[in-house]
């Protein structure tokens, strides 16, 4: 006899893209389950209570800086609605990197790695009353509370899964173009989570998404998720402009006359060495966005080399100049407080930022955070002196910079404390399956 399973999603705007991919995988699998959404802790608890399943699986997804706040939400939900039939699972980059921390924070399960195969197998196991240790891509509590990992979930071609399900306008979002990243920046979770190689969605799959958006909901705007936009179609470091143009031309042909393509703007970016006159001229023929996001991170060649960025400060200045000449306003990411950074490095970043503003850019300011799973997870953030803070504030006051670097500085402190409490050298425990 199979169990009725209800899936309740703690639905948050900050992490909808990953959740949409899970819902698409459930839809495509045909596995039977009731789906409910909670947009607050109170609504999530109410949905648990109202659910019709005799097994309830509650999905949580969050980034590492939000882990503490989400643990407080989880406690609030449990206080309002709980029982032995309710299982809470956390997924995403933090759960993948820190499953023990997630389990100690109150979740029953941690999803490790890409979740599409895991969610289908987990709902199936709950329906069939199978052992959860048979589900790939999980961490469960062992007899002594230590995280016990099941076998890894497979990393499938991107075409194997849709970016979002059909049938609900609220779930439509950007189309995921690429997973994984061959640029192993020491501060970034993407290569850790998805692998150090690119996996690109085919043009045919992208067109299928666009056609569904247009036919089902009459949508005319298309956006993409990718760690580096102009790497589409390329296996290595060089941009493949022919592949990018084939993609954009195919999407344009699928859209109505007033359709719009947004590419290289949020939620994706462009690497500075990929910004060439040829690339910008090609984008101008297809895209509607008047801005692009360029990842600089530092104006210090020493820090850029230490962080593994793969470029110096010179290409950043060149990229901004070229982008502006072709009618784009660049939003340029800078990160302060990276490990080993001193006042001279910060001064180099601020002087480059001033130069870029003169050229026509805006500066997007960040504070380094020791993110779980990254090579710099255990690194100490560099001190940011008052004078650097004042110069950043002056840029913001003039409308030349934006960002939440002060809030990220608070997150950085908490993440550093968590890293010390959960030393990475602890041996992993795995099932035999």
Short description:
The protein is α/β, with parallel strands linked by helices and 433 residues long.
Outline the structure in words.
The chain has about 425 residues and is an alpha/beta fold. About 40% of the residues lie in helices and about 15% in strands. It has an eight-stranded mixed beta sheet, sandwiched between helices. Strand 15, helix 13 and strand 16 form a beta-alpha-beta unit.
Structural class by SSE content: alpha/beta
Helical element count?
15
CA-CA gap between termini: 25 Å
Please give the share of residues in helix.
Answer: 25-40%
The total strand number stands at 18
What radius of gyration results from the CA coordinates? 22 Å
The global form is globular
Walk across the major sheet and give the strand order. Answer: 2-1-3-4-5-6-7-18
How is this fold's topology laid out?
Elements: E1 5-10, H1 16-29, E2 34-38, H2 41-50, E3 55-61, H3 67-80, E4 86-91, H4 93-97, H5 99-104, E5 109-111, H6 116-128, E6 138-141, E7 147-149, E8 175-176, E9 178-179, H7 190-194, E10 199-200, H8 203-217, E11 221-222, E12 224-225, H9 241-254, E13 260-261, H10 277-284, E14 291-297, H11 301-306, H12 313-325, E15 329-336, H13 343-359, E16 362-367, H14 386-397, E17 401-402, H15 405-421, E18 429-430
Parallel strand pairs: 1-2, 1-3, 3-4, 4-5, 7-18, 8-12, 11-13, 14-15, 15-16, 16-17
Antiparallel strand pairs: 5-6, 6-7, 9-10
